[in-house]
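Consider this pair:
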Amino acid sequence: MNFPGKLTMNLSVFVLLCSIAGISYGASTLSERKKQIKNQERVIADNEKNETIEIGDDARLSDYIKAGLMNNPGLKAAFYKWKASFAKISQAFSLPDPQFTYTKYIEGVETRVGPQERAYSINQKFPLLDKLWIRRSKAFRASEESFYNLNKQRLEQINKITDAYYEYAYLSKAILLMNENIKLLKIFESVAQTKYRTGLAPNHDLLKVQVELGKLENDLLSLEDSRLPLVSRLNALLNLPMDNLLPWPDETLEGAVLGQKYEEINGLYDELTKHNPELLSLTENIEENRDSLKLAKREYFPDLSVGVTKIETADALNPGAVDSGKDPVMVMVSFNLPLWFGRLNAGVRESRASLKAAEELLVNKQNELLTRLNYVHYKIRDALRQSNLYKDALLPKATQTLNATQFGYQGGKEDFLSLIDAQRVLFNFQLAYYRQNANFYQRIAELKSLLGEFPVDPGETE
């Protein structure tokens, strides 16, 4: 079955031109995304070959984040969703499959050149105008939307791990401080017992310290019991077994410093609107809906179908007939007729409404995130202010007060109640200091998540 070479060549050239035009659109971005997908697949394959990641005693926040980004099944699901969406780009730019038809005549159709026995035909539909380009653009926008959603989930994962990590670090500090204060109260108890036996102090001093000691021991048990659910939270984020007991973080919770970049809120508004992955995803969604509107308008124009038919003809009954047995070849061109304007108009209205909804959704989300940015920035400044207040003023004064009260009690110039109160104040200030530092680092992580930042050192705040 030999079709005319000229027609076949013209169809091939048309398809080739379509392909070249498609590759040139966003070629650099497409190439970059392909490399990112391959690299991520390689990382996932390497991780699946390795054994379960263990968090050692010297593990830092960056180790927790690395394990969480590699192991979390939710992030893997988001990656494969992006990969599936990316694969739709080439599908959207592809022509529909050509249609081949074989016809066998039950009774041959007699013609002058002979009876026609069978026919072969092939048809190809070509969308007119720029439909293929718009479909490809629409698929690319959908893929970018999935890409930014993946980045959003990565940042949320970093934020969650950081939040749980510093909560775990604070718990470690709180338990350590509690044990130190229990030891100090036991010394006070010993002093009170000695003075009570010698008649130098009343019985209620001893009872007071024992009550305070019992309260701290009860609080210590509560803190120790809270370790398991907090560890379970971290294990879930890292995709580790629930019974895996993570070591205490090696964090001092000291030195909270706000980088110059984050000092002024006004400079962060543009940063958020330009780099927040959720806003970028919604922006791509708007472009996708614009392409949908373009496609809906293109439905008013017909599509072209081109076909070739060859009919096999047997020899004529008259052997001397001119062109006996010659196979006729026919070229067919057809158009669909977009006449049902009610359906077409409804499609345009639908696309316009969807585009408007996507635009309003972006504005609404931007307002939400900017409001959240203001609140997070306030919490950062508030935590830093309180941390500096405790470090520079309250803690030194509380320490001096306790030392002076303890010295005065030993000399008989201070009562035991003042000593207990001084100890309690210092202990509460110490807890509050580390609480504010933990809050500071947690809110810094949330701020970076809002700004779309992937820091090399997640614990870095400058």
Summary: The longest helix spans residues 341-410. The radius of gyration is 38 Å. The chain has eleven helices and four strands.
